[in-house]
Specification:
2 copies of one chain form a homodimer.
Chain A (H helix, E strand, L loop, with lengths): L3 E9 L3 H14 L13 H6 L2 E7 L6 E9 H4 L3 H9 L8 E7 L2 H6 L6 H9 L6 E6 L6 H13 L4 E4 L11 H19 L4 E3 L9 H11 L4 E3 L1 H4 L3 H7 L7 E3 L17 H12 L3 E5 L9 H12 L9 E5 L7 H8 L4 E3 L2 H4 L4 H12 L2
Parallel strand pairs in A: 5-6, 5-12, 6-7, 8-9, 9-10, 10-11
Antiparallel strand pairs in A: 1-3, 1-4, 2-3
Chain lengths: ~375, ~375
């Protein structure tokens, strides 16, 4: 028999009998997808069919139960997307089900080597110790390359460790991908030469399916210090493929664009910690961007801290990654964020800095506040 | 000035003033993602910034309004994922927003050539006129190749037009992708030779990011009659890339695995018609699988018919595609489905047929019922 991994689902139900029926339905739906009466005896029934391992009252007091189902590594077939499909493929379409937690197994850990760099690698590249990291973004879309490169330079002079593309920058005419990449890498390099800093430029490589891997290689050849992509748009196996590619060595930053429906409803999708924490770390993202509490989005402090915890919790020796909360952050909120996250965090602040008349000075004040 | 496309959002709000504030926030969030006060004058403000074009009371009586925002084709940059990012990238993370409809523009239609075959091409391949199509699936995962190929043969002998892999079949040991593909294409070919039918085998090519395109080519070379993949797992640009590839000529069937959170909550994601209809047709899927009303899932009859309508409505000359409702369908429900969908539908029935002792006979009864 192969090893089994587990998925714990919140199952909305009026009583335990209904919850059990729904849980047994998940076990069928996610594996054999045929009526229980015709599941073939032997290997399919004994190994492939999901197994209800545990039922609990919901500790959070929601109107339902927690059901833990185990699945065979044989069903995964060495395929990360099939792993996700087993976790929640068809059941994602049934309201009142939510993936709360995933219990990993040796075969899953062998399939998912996790991040190449993690938070330690991102700090080493930035030349800092166990302090918070800082990242900002050049924007908006529509500015010409020269203006974006000037922003990249100013962020670097101001002491940001990573300067990324806005996630809406792809290959638009005012700043085509290759031209922008080259100009920003050069601008950041000149700033580093002047300041003695070690800022990295991180282009957005989310793009046509046939171009993403090529843009990642181009970024590496051009001297970028990382790449960013949005898994919910580009596909959930692209980060894993890049992180496992022996010829690709840059850190990977994940952006949450288009992922919202997977977490914001209490009635479907994933818990915040599992989606932005566990899954992104398994994929091999080194930094995971998500909306911080108290900004323009609705995540709670507890949800954000659960993501940060999942980025660092023991996971079969996989490296810890860095939570990168953003979305309307300001310098004034640094003390509150420090109090919440401690040092193992990447401050992602963009728009607020761009409101300041002297960008480099504004960055320096931010860096000072973070390191205070 | 470039042409503009529009997105109509349902915006949950207590009153029109709140809805307008939220809508203006979407217009910023989805384009420039910086505070309104620092949006650069000229091209960025005049062209790139989203524009609130219309606000209406919600015709469905929900607690909110419909806001229509226009966006510039310049912002898309010829990139389908950036189009999706503009439509709902960051705003997907804000509860109480739902994409209701998308108003296309010439540049979007130029970017998205749509399906190569559509429902007419799928019928031509099956050798039928304007009748309903029938599709079934070989399963479960865990069966050896020989058993799956036998099922494919029996489905073909029974008169199903398309026989697809279960979406959980990838490259597992009991039935590796290449071996299964070859055996099923052969089994279906032998059945066709015997029956005079024209059944096509459709393998599931959802898989590692670095293997999907290769598996699509392998399917074509091996004589498959289509490919199936799950865009919500594999990424939303893969279907478009395949449909636009001059060297790839097979029909593409889309599977809804992992897409549920994008539609099931009333408080986030997309309307059913936009997600499974408009977007899949833009991508270039020829058939779109979704859960039928009255089966194991919770879609309503109206939601399902709105998908079917979006598959066929006039869309800048793009071919009509076929809705493929499935998920617990039975022969007994054929009259109800015929009443709902008419002839422009692909009946997807799998598990119910597998419960019958003589599969080929069960298929023939289904075909007779559909064509009655």
């Amino acid at each position: 028999m192969a090893e089994r991994f587990t998925v714990t689902y919140f199952v909305r139900a009026a009583d335990q009998a209904e919850a059990k029926a729904r849980a047994l339905d998940i076990a069928l739906e996610q594996t054999v997808e045929i009526p229980r009466s015709v599941v073939p005896k032997g290997y399919v029934e004994d190994e492939i069919l999901g197994r209800l391992e545990d039922m609990q009252n919901d500790p959070e007091g929601r109107a339902g139960y927690l059901a833990t189902i185990s699945y065979s590594e044989d069903d995964v077939g060495g395929d990360f997307l099939q792993f996700l499909n087993i976790v929640f493929g068809n059941s994602s379409i049934k309201p009142g089900l939510k993936v709360e937690d995933i219990g990993l197994s040796p075969g899953l850990l062998a399939l998912c080597k996790g991040p190449r760099h993690g938070i330690a690698g991102l700090r080493a590249r930035a030349g800092i110790g166990e302090e918070p990291l800082l990242m900002s973004a050049i924007k908006p879309v529509g500015l010409p390359t020269v203006a974006l490169a000037r922003l990249a330079r100013d962020f670097a002079l101001g002491g940001m460790h990573y300067v990324k593309d806005d996630h809406g920058l792809v290959d638009q005419k005012p700043a085509p991908f290759g031209e922008r990449l080259k100009a920003c890498v050069e601008a950041v390099g000149e700033a580093n030469a002047k300041s003695g800093g070690r800022t990295s430029f991180v282009p957005n490589i989310t793009g046509p399916a046939t171009a993403i891997i090529e843009r990642a290689r181009q970024a590496q050849e051009c001297g970028a210090g990382g790449v960013m992509l949005a898994p919910a748009l580009a596909g959930y196996d692209v980060v894993r493929a890049l992180a496992a590619d022996p010829d690709f060595t840059l850190p990977i930053v994940s952006h949450p664009a288009f992922s919202g429906a997977n977490v914001v409803s209490p009635d479907c999708g994933f818990s915040h910690r599992t989606f932005y924490g566990t899954l992104h770390r398994l994929m091999g993202a080194d930094a995971v961007i998500y909306p911080n509490f108290g900004g323009r989005f609705g995540f709670t402090r507890e949800e954000c801290l659960s993501i940060a915890a999942a980025c660092a919790v023991n996971m079969g020796g996989r490296k810890a990654i860095v939570p990168a909360p953003g979305g309307g952050m300001t310098v004034a909120r640094v003390p509150e964020m420090r109090d919440a996250y401690g040092n193992d965090v990447m401050y992602l602040i963009g728009g607020a800095l761009l409101q300041e008349s002297r960008l480099t000075d504004a960055c320096r004040r931010l860096v000072a506040a973070v390191h205070a």
